Amino acid sequence: MKLGKICLSILCLSVCFLSCKKDDDGDDTVTVEIRDRAEQQIVDNDSIIEYLETHYYNKSDFEGNTNPKIADLKIMSTEGLTISSDADSLLINAVGAAKTTVYADTDYEFYVLKLNQGGGEDSPTFADNVLVNYEGFTLDNEVFDSAVTPVEFDLIDLVPGWRKVLPDFNVAESYVENNDGTVDFVNSGVGVMFLPSGLGYFSSATSSISSYSPIAFKFELIHTTENDHDGDGVPSYLEDLNGDGDLFDENTDEDFVNGFPLYNYIDSDDDGDGIPTIYEDIDGDGDPTNDIGKNGIPKYLDPEETESNT
Question: How many Å apart are CA 95 and CA 217, to the nearest integer?
């Protein structure tokens, strides 16, 4: 049985905890006054750095550990302790330099503690499904969400930070079936992401997370599945034409449904020429992106090209 099949079996039995989703429709969600993103990023970054400078982790338990789990990780305060400022167990040293990205026209910094790269061959793109274990917590070390059995998420549905972090990790190398019918995954990608509110819930607040709160997630990346959300033969990550890692600014034919943009990744006719994208795969190789028209662009993106393979 391949890893993908065993993952599917687990998904059928698992219960999803969806607090890390960007659109939580629970009754406890409220909206507050929107702050300037750039100004809030400065405040959040200061808070994250303060946390990293005043907390350390059990680094020795991960040295030589070829199959680490987030359950093995302990993050502790330095209060009352004497720890050298250059100790490699101190989080500020362990995470290394800040990662940078642009989201919502704002420059963001975030931090990642990489505990294990993951031994599998595959890594998700920002638009794929992932099978994970995880635990979300605030900088007060209050856990607001977790999954103790593997759950599957579409990265598009999660807070932006997940799409920035998970592609830098690999999936599990293998799995072991236990006598009691449970499954242990071996050599998963394991880490912790520390996110400013702008890559988290930003102005949204719940009973567990106040608005404009930096947050963190421990995670184990187990498996990934490539997404083609609209079934048009173009993997969703390739619908990001400008390469900015954001599918919500790609609408080639500028069409709308009920007042909402029909972005390319959910549009089965990307150029609006009446020929479904999947039928503009003229050479029939299953890839519409390599069928280039007279204007030097793929035919499925050019409304002047109406040739069909049917």
Answer: 14
Is residue 298 very low, low, confident or very high in pLDDT (cuts 50, 70, 90)? very high
Long-range contacts of 180-187 (CB under 8 A, 24+ apart): 183/6, 183/10, 185/150, 185/220, 185/222, 186/67, 186/119, 187/66, 187/67, 187/116, 187/118, 187/119, 187/120
DSSP readout, the chain? --HHHHHHHHHHH-----TTBS----TT-EE-PPPPHHHHHHHHHHHHHHHHHTEEE-GGGTTT-SS--GGG--EEE-TT----TT-TTBHHHHS-SPEEEEETTEEEEEEEEEEE--SSS----TTSEEEEEEEEEETT--EEEEEEEEEEEEGGGB-HHHHHHGGGS---SEEEE-TTS-EEEES-EEEEEEE-GGGTTTTEE-SSS-TT--EEEEEEEEEEE---TT-SSS-GGGG-TT-SS-GGG--TT--EETTEE--GGG-SSTT-SSS-GGGG-TT-SS-GGG-B-TTSSBGGG-TT------
Domains within the chain, CATH numbers bracketed? 3-225 (3.10.50.40), 236-301 (no CATH)
Quote the tokens at residue 303.
């409304």
pLDDT, tens digit, 9 for 90 and up, residues 2-47: 444 344 444 444 433 344 555 444 455 555 789 999 999 999 999 9
Q: Residues 192, 197, 201, 205: is their CA dihedral positive or negative?
A: positive
pLDDT over 90 percentage in the chain: 80
